[in-house]
């Protein structure tokens, strides 16, 4: 289910027609339906809270302040991967003691920022990182809670660019090295080793890889405890997928049952780090048809949204449904067309030979399931300002990121003195 439905023949986000948003804000624009974020959060929380599992929203999926604030209000913590995301999380109202810091490449400055803020824990991905956090913790005078993110060497069966839990991925500490890493963490005076973390990849539709990963994690907890270590927290990662092609995604009740079966007897406090599951369905990219070009081989529908606005199809060959904002007549002739953007790259292609009702110049379309890894992965390639973002709640909507302007872009750049004549 996405947050977008036809009412009176026009696609709506909650009670707002997308054509109204296009008139007021222009295109391309990201539109988010808060009701869908709320429903997704409630579904996951209802399944997991009986097990005491807390939800730390992975901000990387969509870090607009309005989206984070929506989730913060519902009680979500945050999973961050940079000092910037820490600032965003706190600005939107996530309490620092509900924040975990993941990522393979934390800098000393970011570690200091997080320690001073009083975050819940660092998920540490290497022994050199343990050493760094210990040093920074000493200089800041705050002991750091650390969990070891282990790499369980499980194939998540997802796209190669978003799988993270295999030995040849850069993420986590190899299972075989985890006991030595724990011993190292114990030996460092400014660290408090609290637990383990795992994240095997993103867009998991099948739950089987979780089972394998959690089994290995549970075995490791038992092995560490047998060596006399205290392991009190488990972070079970994110990765729950969504049905981009209308297929049914993983059932969160099944996921909860799996968590119960695999790890709940360990008596650890539990947390998960979902991103996509909470926000993907809640967002769309609203775009306008610039031209329809009938080439000799195929028809091209050229949009005002490009790969700089929605990168996923170009980067991962991802599928996003494209639907007309004005509902097609039931007897509309379906015609295959390539849906492309204006960027000067052949890769700026959203869909090939997509079966669509006829689209004409000026028509509005929406890319569905674009709430996760959409706006956050936008760029200004071809000097295309970042798209606007709008949050809808019932019959209200607000611009939550105004469209960037070319002046914004140029104001960040300088012509050096020796070129501008200021050097003489
Ligand atoms: N925790 C960690 C440590 C992660 O690396 C990620 C995602 C998550 C949680 C959240 O995963 P989710 O629940 O959203 O699957 N740009 C790609 C996805 C990259 C995911 C990176 N890590 C895409 O557009 O498909």
From TrEMBL:
Ligand binding (pyridoxal 5'-phosphate): 239, 273-276, 373
Function comment: Specifically catalyzes the decarboxylation of meso-diaminopimelate (meso-DAP) to L-lysine.
Instruction: Specify one Pfam family.
Output: Orn_Arg_deC_N
The upper taxonomy is: Bacteria, Pseudomonadati, Pseudomonadota, Alphaproteobacteria, Rhodospirillales
Q: Which residues are noted in the entry as substrate-binding?
A: 276, 312, 316, 345, 373
Provide the leader sequence positions.
Answer: none
Q: Extract one GO BP annotation from the record.
A: lysine biosynthetic process via diaminopimelate
For whether the record's keyword set contains Lyase, the answer is yes
What organism, scientifically named, is this protein from?
Roseiterribacter gracilis
Uppermost EC category: lyase
Protein name as it appears in the record: Diaminopimelate decarboxylase
Q: Which UniProt keywords apply?
A: Amino-acid biosynthesis, Decarboxylase, Lyase, Lysine biosynthesis, Pyridoxal phosphate
**Which residues constitute the catalytic centre?**
344
Gene3D superfamilies, A to Z = Alanine racemase, Lyase, Ornithine Decarboxylase, Chain A, domain 1
Q: Where is the Orn/DAP/Arg decarboxylase 2 N-terminal domain?
A: 36-280
Catalytic activity, reaction form: meso-2,6-diaminopimelate + H(+) = L-lysine + CO2
Instruction: Describe the protein's quaternary organization and the partners it interacts with.
Output: Homodimer.
Q: What Enzyme Commission number(s) does the record list for this chain?
A: 4.1.1.20
An example of a GO molecular function for this protein is: pyridoxal phosphate binding
Family under the similarity heading: Belongs to the Orn/Lys/Arg decarboxylase class-II family. LysA subfamily.
Q: In which pathway does it act?
A: Amino-acid biosynthesis; L-lysine biosynthesis via DAP pathway; L-lysine from DL-2,6-diaminopimelate: step 1/1
Please list the residues that carry the modification N6-(pyridoxal phosphate)lysine.
60
Names of required cofactors:
pyridoxal 5'-phosphate
């Amino acid at each position: 289910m996405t947050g977008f439905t036809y009412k009176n023949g026009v696609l709506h986000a909650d009670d707002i027609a997308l054509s109204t948003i296009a008139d007021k804000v222009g295109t391309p624009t990201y539109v988010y339906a808060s009701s869908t974020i709320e429903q997704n959060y409630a579904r996951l929380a209802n399944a997991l809270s009986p097990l005491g599992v807390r939800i730390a929203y992975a901000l990387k999926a969509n870090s607009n302040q309005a989206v984070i604030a929506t989730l913060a209000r519902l009680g979500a913590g945050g999973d961050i991967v940079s000092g910037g995301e820490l600032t965003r999380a706190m600005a939107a109202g996530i309490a620092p003691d509900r924040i975990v810091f993941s990522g393979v490449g934390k800098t000393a400055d970011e570690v200091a920022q997080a320690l001073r803020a009083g975050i819940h824990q660092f998920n540490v991905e290497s022994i050199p990182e343990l050493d760094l956090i210990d040093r920074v913790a000493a200089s800041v005078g705050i002991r750091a809670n650390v969990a070891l993110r282990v790499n369980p060497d499980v194939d998540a069966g997802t796209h190669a660019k978003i799988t993270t839990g295999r030995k040849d991925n850069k993420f986590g500490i190899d299972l075989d090295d985890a006991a030595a890493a724990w011993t190292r963490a114990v030996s460092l005076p400014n660290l408090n080793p609290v637990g383990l973390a795992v994240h095997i990849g993103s867009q998991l539709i099948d739950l089987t890889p979780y089972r394998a990963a959690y089994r290995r994690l549970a075995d490791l907890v038992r092995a560490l405890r047998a060596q006399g270590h205290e392991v009190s927290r488990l972070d079970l990662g994110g990765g729950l997928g969504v049905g981009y092609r209308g297929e049914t995604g993983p059932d969160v009740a099944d996921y909860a049952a799996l968590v119960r079966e695999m790890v709940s007897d360990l008596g650890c406090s539990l947390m998960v780090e979902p991103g996509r599951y909470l926000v993907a369905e809640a967002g769309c990219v609203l775009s306008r048809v610039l031209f329809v070009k009938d080439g000799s081989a195929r028809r091209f529908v050229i949009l005002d949204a490009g790969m700089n606005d929605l990168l996923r199809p170009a980067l991962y060959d991802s599928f996003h449904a494209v639907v007309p904002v004005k509902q097609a007549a039931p007897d509309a002739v379906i015609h295959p067309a390539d849906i492309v953007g204006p960027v000067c790259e052949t890769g700026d292609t959203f869909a090939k030979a997509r079966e669509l009702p006829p689209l004409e110049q000026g028509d509005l379309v929406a890319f569905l399931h674009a709430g996760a890894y959409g706006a956050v992965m936008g760029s200004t390639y071809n000097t295309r300002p970042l798209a606007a973002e709008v949050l809808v709640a019932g019959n209200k909507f607000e611009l939550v990121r105004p469209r960037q302007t070319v002046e914004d872009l140029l104001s960040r750049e300088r012509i050096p003195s020796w070129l501008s004549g200021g050097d003489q």
